[in-house]
Structures are given as C-alpha cells and as structure tokens.
Amino acid sequence: MDFSRYRDPNPNPTQRTRRGLRFSAVLTLGWLISMPALADNPGYDRPGYGFTPVVLGAGEVTLEQGIGDWNLDRQDGVRSSLFTADSLLRVGIGGPLELQVGGSAFNYLHQTGSGTDFSSHGHGDSNLAIKLALPSSNQAFTWGLLGSVEFTDGAKAFRNDTRQYLFGTQFNYQINEHNQLGAYLQDVRAGGNDSTTVALSDNVALTKTLTAYVEAALLHTPDQGSGTVAGGGLAWMVNPRLQLDAGFDRRLDGAAPEWQANLGVSIYFGH
Asked: What's the pTM?
C-alpha cells in the first residue's frame, strides 16, 4: 500500500511517578510538535499491509510504535484476543538501503471457550530487516524490496517454533495529486513451509495532513488454507515529525483473523 502518503506535506521547511510520566509524555509530545523537520521525511511503514518503498537518508532515524494493535479470532469454539505493542526502528544507512530493527515489548493473549480460560503476557520475537528502494524511470511509480529474519527469542506463548524469513515487494502508483494505488506481495518461509500475502490498497489525501486508505488482502498459510480481509483507516500528519494512525480489517471469508485493529504513532527524528 502507499505509505509515502504519510510523508511531510511541506518537505522544505506509584501516583506521583505516574503523574510525572504523564507530564514527561506531554512535554515530549509538545517538543515533537514544535520542532521543525531537519530533512525531508520520506514517509512511514505504518499502518496497514506493506511498506513505503522509499528509504531514509543516511543517518536519519524513525520510530514507529503500535500503541494498540489488536487481533480477534475464533477457532473450534475458542475465542482468542491478542493485544500487541509493536515497535519498529528504521535507520538510513546510505544509498538505496535502510536498516530496520523490530519487535514487540508487550503482548497479551486471552483465550476463552470450550473449557478454556487462558491468559499470558510477555515480549515477542525480534526481527532484523533490510529495505531496498529500486530505481524507476517514471516519477509516478515507486517500488522496493524488503527482506527480514525473525528470531525465536520471545516469551514462550509468543515465540515462533523456528526462525521466519520474510521477503516482500511493494509497488506504488501515483494516479494524481490526491490518489495513489498500492500493491504488496509477501512470502514468509518458516520450517520448510511458505505463507503468502497479496494486498491491494487505494489511498486518498483528504487534506494536506489527513489521508484515508482502504485495503483488501488474500492470506494463505499451509496449515489453515486461504482467507480474505478488507478494511481501512486514517493517518494524520500532526506535523512533519509526527504521525498518528488508526485502522481496522475484517475477515470476509476463509482462514483469517476475524478482526484486526491498529492504533499507532510514528516519529521522524531526522539526523
């Protein structure tokens, strides 16, 4: 999907402890809102399927933080609700390359039904990725590659059985100033099996700072088969350094999460 839609719209220019943390958070937010951008913001990988096929400049840093990513699914009479706080640190390493380090410091799983009442919390697996922005002779067309490895270092309830290797390709086409189409292809290899995702999106700039998107995806896993989801959301560029996002996806049919919802913040630090 087109995550470059979240780029800078103007690229040239105990209780006391908790109160203290809230006050510090407000100060930090005010600092981010008031500070000017140091360099062009190429956009964010949040939210939705896919990634922006544009990389950060050498030495530039972006943090993308999920503050409320939630999945709901039902299988064999068991209802599973998973809350995740995903983090993604992106660092420009020069040329067409970008380094990414990700993980989830907190996960909470709750399962009920069919005699089951189970809950667990802990950190998830970490991952390391490289993004490559590919050349294009057409200014309206951008594309890129993403390769990552996800390790098995998470808490027991949130750890993969084996390492996972992801390869993704993103295609974006700018139809006009306000509308851009995106396509995302992904293959995840784990334990000798492949899980695939094909996602399409349409992104519309409602204002210079507010963008809406709709998306649909076909998901396939070797153990559960195929399923489809569709949804959408909003991304608000508070200023060139700070983006807030919210979105959801709903299962249409087959083997896919019944509901997916996301709420997040992305911060561009520049150099």
From this structure: 0.85
Return the residue matching tokens 């309206």.
140
- Residue length of the chain: 271
**Nearest alpha carbon to residue 193 among 173, 164, 228, 222:** 222
CATH number of 168's domain: 2.40.160.40
- pLDDT tens profile 46-85: 999 999 999 999 999 999 999 989 999 888 788 999 999 9
Q: How many domains does the chain have?
A: 1
Q: What is the pLDDT of residues 144-193, one digit of tens each?
A: 999 999 999 999 888 888 999 999 999 999 999 999 999 999 999 999 99
Domain with 226 in it: 3-270
